[in-house]
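Dear colleague,

Thank you for sharing your sequence with our group. We've completed the structure prediction you requested, and as agreed, I am returning the results in plain text so they can be pasted directly into your records. Please verify that the sequence below matches your submission; if there's any discrepancy, let me know and we will rerun it promptly.
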Amino acid sequence: MNTRLTLFTATLVQDSALSVSGLDRESIADQPFALVDGVPTLVGRGIKGAAVAMAKRFFDPLPRAVSDDIKHGALRRSAWEFADATTTATLRVRAGVGIRHKTGARADGVLYDREVIPAGTKWQLRFRVDWSHVADHDEGREAEGVLGYVLARHWKQGRCWLGGGAARGLGWCHLEDLKAYRFDEASYDRWVESGRAQLPAVLDAVPLVQPTRSWCFRTLDVNVSFGEYKPDPNAAAWGLDMLAIGPHDTDRAIQATGDGTWAKPAWATNVETPIVLSTDRALLMEGARPLLPGASVRGPLRHAFSRAERAAGHDVQDPHLVQGDVGIDDVAGRAFGTVSKSSRILIRDARAEKKWAAAKLHMHAEDELSASTYGTSKRDAMRVLAGVFPVRVLIEGATPNEVEALVALIDRQIALGAFGHLPVGGHKTRGAGWGRWQAKPWTIDDVISTRTWTPPKESESAPPNAAHSKRAFIERPATSDVWVRTTHGGLDSDALTLGEAARFAKTALGDRALLAWWCDPTIDLGLATPPATFGREWPGGDALQVDEVAFYAERAVWRAVRAADGARYVLIVEAASSDDGAKKTSVVHTPARLHGFQRFSSANTGQSSVLLREWHVGDEVLGFTLTKEQR
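Please find the predicted structure tokens below.
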């Protein structure tokens, strides 16, 4: 079977809240979520970027059909195609704050908030590998297998990080119900004609290839628990470890009681707990349970590490004083990240397990003279009295030496937590945050390189069969410099027809032979049959109205477009350097393809490979024409 397309489908499930930045708009948040027509959207470009970043960890070189680089010359279109995903979930606002190392108070100017989609939200994903964009059968198998490996061996296992703030707990996801389908030419046509509803049989296993590069993953699960503090399990409790983490200001006055147990006074033990309570300072909740954000764990770890390094005589900068730019020589920056290098330590948000308990505590400030309530300082606040928060720490790196150093660093900080000396959350000096840390053994998920792979050379790519021979790239010449002359102008009428444009183009191109023409028809619901939009001979007397049209000669092109102020045209012709108005350009040859699709708006153009002759001025493309076609 000659593969035409490989389709992957899956359900993306959020293990933590997700933050995907969108365009600036009216929002109460500093970092709004991406919305398209008011609907929260996970943009395909962002999903693909995460997949490519993950693939680069395990595959070197990465096939050009997956992600190309300008160092290879003209860029190739990627065979990976990712669709946008949407959800009906409601956006929440998550607050963030920077804490000063010395005082433990909020850093000046580092209070922000962002819109997030809560944990547990599901997204329906579709990924495609288009085999018409690969150089040969071997590269197609590699491009397909690399994506299958990323999805099946890592994203499905929970190592999927999307959006912003992954190191601080946001964007941790995993895949469920992962399926793969392969289309040949016949099944692809049936799929398109059925409105992409008729799928072939699902593959027995997700296609994948083995990695060509080693990578290291180390995962540590830690239970951070609050409640009665009993150094001796058989003795009386010494005290009560509580937790206080506040929500965004918009949520601080109303406390959802969730599925936990709430402390009640003796006279109200039989009263049913209300769904919500009014308060001055609520707890941060996710769903029906309190939340310990990854940022609230990461901060104390970094602060404790920085204090130990300062005590050892090392200079450690407070990142909030230098906008995160602590420099590459800062020991805490090397471990926990800088503005130029992301951290290899990632910490996931932790939601309380079942059987948690909380209370609404009444508080006030005391007048030192009278020992009574001071002024109007009476208030109430929520505290977690008992609960277990499963925190996950993941360390990744290219070599064992790199990750082992970070593993030792985390182990030292977790040891402090085991003694109850690593407080988290707010009100640490008022009896909150001093929980106990119980770590499980580290889990090792290292990836070992098991093979090598060499990308095919464009000029030596031999098509394995006749079907692929129609889609093989044409060998391109080297880049050169030429001079071109451009002429702009307007046409007489607002409407533009294909026949009228052909007459103007014939006059402008003179005796230059026509290679091909192309047009974008104006929407006309009166057309009974799809019009031709591509041809190799001059169209004669065609009354088809078009929005854009181009006529290609070997070293010239005439284009026209219907604009708001009438039809406009441009003529680009290669000329001598001495011609008036001639400008110097670089000629870059880019291979492309005609796929022969049957579309609702045009007739089938047939399959062939073409070579584009692009005129570049600096980093921009001035225009292009066709120079060669291979059918």
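Summary note from our side: Residues 459-471 have pLDDT under 50 and may be disordered.

Kind regards,
the structure core
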